[in-house]
Amino acid sequence: MTKMLREKPAVDAPKGRLGILLPGLGAVATTFIAGVEAVRRGIATPIGSLTQMGHIRLGKRTDSRQPLIKDFVPLQDLSGIVFGGWDIFEDDCLTAARRAGVLDSQLLDKLSDFLGGIRPMRAAFDPEYVKRISGPNVIAGGRRQWADQLRADIRNFKKQHELDRVVLVWCGSTEVFGPSTEVTDSLAAFEKGLDANDSRIPPSMVYAYAALMEGCPYANGAPNLSADAPAMLELADLKKVPVCGKDYKTGQTLMKTIIAPGLKARLLGLQGWFSTNILGNRDGEVLEDPGSFKSKEVTKLSVLDTILQPELYPELYGNFFHSVKINYYPPRGDNKEGWDNIDITGWLGYPMQIKIDFLCRDSILAAPLVLDLALFLDFAQRSGFYGIQEWLSFYFKSPMAPAGLYPEHDLFIQQTKLKNTLRYVMGEELITHLGLDYYGDEA
């Protein structure tokens, strides 16, 4: 569970400005940055952001206390945020956003002065971990040199922009699948691996290391191991820094975490769930590599087993077929389409079907998650929380969980945990929805 520095949290106010550094200034990152700036200028609405548009119930239902979360919790105001990041390509954020093709040119024209001024720093990159793309804007040397440069970048960014705090949120590509090894099993082994330029250390983990060493909270938006390894968790505890991940829950998996809890709640059986996607952006191209797709597949396939609990309901969920496919289709660009065929069973075993065709916009769904994660991680650090922030599982396909505990995938349980964490930190009663008002206990 989330560790805390104090027995009873007492959150500090967000003094000064917050820097948000993004490894990977591609479609997701530029859509996020442009969106926040558009909101700051009053020309767009932050739809999809819990921190900006969500309300939270406090006390009894009869109390009618449902403030906006941003009015209840001391979050960093959008006006005090500064953006930066790293990328293997040299394009500034305006050029990168136009190349990504997510946002229309009229909006980008209005933001061109701002976006054009954000240029990427040199990135840590190993082509063995992302095989279908490469670029010239990379840090020379081995992994120790990467780590030293990334740490210097964080310090320089903070000094240059006179920032009080910095948060890192991974927006880069999916790395090839690889389990934790002895080089990531302890902080001592990891640092030796950095010095030896051990190829078993993925670039994303070097970013996590640099962030934690500099005392910066870190969120992993891809299925990479990144911060989800014993060495990084040891470092997070040592430096008292919050971390969370993995893999933004946006399109098809979001639908699964909405629908699967409903099937289970009504005890409807499942025979099979077939999912396929077409996607044409850089992420889709990277996922054409089997190694990178394996990382994504693991996070997508893990959702249903945890929600449906086949070990408890073997007759309903003990033998269902589950398959996930992703196909690179350049004409569609960032506009992903996900098809789901769900074969379910009802009373007396009679079969039924559910069909879903979700024509979504990948980066449009991911951008508000980046904002929420940055603001909530900053809030967590000011509240004295460190280590795995399980209350932020709401945002991820494959949430990090403490050793010995399974991750919670049910979207509605995740939402309850998130809001109850906010209530707890702010000294409000937790909401259990028992509705015992007729006993005089709760309403």
Strand order of the largest sheet: 1-11-6-5-4-2-3
Rounded to an integer in angstroms, the radius of gyration calculated over CA atoms is 22 Å
Structural class: alpha/beta
- The proportion of residues forming helix, as a percent range, comes to 25-40%
Number of DSSP helices?
16
* CATH architecture term of the largest domain: 3-Layer(aba) Sandwich
Q: Gap between N and C termini, in Å? A: 28 Å
Please explain how this structure is put together:
With 443 residues, this protein is α/β, with parallel strands linked by helices. The protein has 2 domains: 309 residues, NAD(P)-binding Rossmann-like Domain (Rossmann fold, 3-Layer(aba) Sandwich), CATH 3.40.50.720; 108 residues, 2-Layer Sandwich (Dihydrodipicolinate Reductase, domain 2). 37% of the residues lie in helices and 15% in strands. It contains 16 helices and 11 strands. The chain has a 7-stranded mixed beta sheet with strand order 1-11-6-5-4-2-3, sandwiched between helices. Strands 8-7-9-10 form a 4-stranded mixed beta sheet. Helix 9 runs parallel beside helix 10. The longest helix has 21 residues.
List the helices and strands and how they pair.
Blueprint: E1 3-4, E2 18-23, H1 27-40, H2 50-53, H3 69-72, E3 81-86, H4 93-100, H5 105-110, H6 112-115, H7 143-160, E4 165-170, H8 187-195, H9 203-213, E5 218-220, H10 230-239, E6 242-245, H11 252-265, E7 269-279, H12 282-286, H13 290-308, H14 314-317, E8 321-328, E9 337-345, E10 351-359, H15 362-382, E11 385-388, H16 411-425
Parallel strand pairs: 2-3, 2-4, 4-5, 5-6, 6-11, 7-8
Antiparallel strand pairs: 1-11, 7-9, 9-10
